[in-house]
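Quick start: read one record
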Amino acid sequence: MKPQASPRVRAALALSAAILVSHGAAAAAQTSAEPYPCRVITLVSPYPAGGTTDILARLLAPKLQASLGATVIVDNRGGASSNIGTEYVAKAAPDGCTALLGNNTGIVINRNLYSLRLDPVTALQPVAKVAAMPLVLYVNPKVPAATVAELVTLLKAKPGVYNFASGGSGSPQHLAGELFKLAAGVDMQHIPYKGQGPAMMDVIAGQVQVAFETTAALYPQAQAGRVVPLATTGTARSDAFPAVPTMREAGYPDLALTNWYGVFVPTGVAQDRVQRLSAALTSALESPDVRAKLTELGSEPVSGTPADFQRFIQAEVPLWETTVKRSGAKVD
């Protein structure tokens, strides 16, 4: 026969059960109120610190944090021309807690140059396009050229003597350099780096003489006089560099390239989570301070839904495949 608990013990047990139920209800309420649904969202930049992707990630992170009520961490995972960070996000759990701030290099260009273990176009789900910028052809201040024409004359006089830098083989900056060589009939050696930040620092230091860079990353260096911008690749002059002519004005109409950036999550993330993240990004992009900063950095206006971004990506696939073939770019 089982022993019977005393009335005092039974009362204590009942009180404990009530407390547990109360705590369970509170925990359930807390869980249902959890942000976005993640306490921490990791925004991966597939490049080292200092480049345009890193600048944009750190511009957007505090806005997303405020909008979503979650801690947003920027995680720089550079290397292999953004393939390492891109693959990391593609293989992450499809819960929306890990996102990629990628660009055309990692999403639609590298698939034409590398034997990738996955296709970013199908392994990643577009959330929102956040920026689109032309590139800027620039030189170290010690290079005796203040215009594109002067640079071409210099390069033709000394074939193979000057080098041009990029943040990695197959990057838009690399492709722009190869297309420039082809269009101008000049000879320069390509020097790839593990990200645009290191590439730009070596141009500033004079280790490499010439490069293409986005308006966003180059703007503060140009303002400080550390580099000399010669031309932009936009269809019109950049707000960030109004005194700098376009490559079209300089006589090279085929060098009209735009580097775009967007946020992606692994394929399979629930649509309500994709829509929530997209809405938070749209809100961030519409805030006056972010809009002013993007304009200052030379970004074109961007907007749209995840479906709009998906259609844009599909149109970019054949465009960059053709560009890679025209440039003759190879993985070094």
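Residues 7-32 form the longest helix (26 residues).
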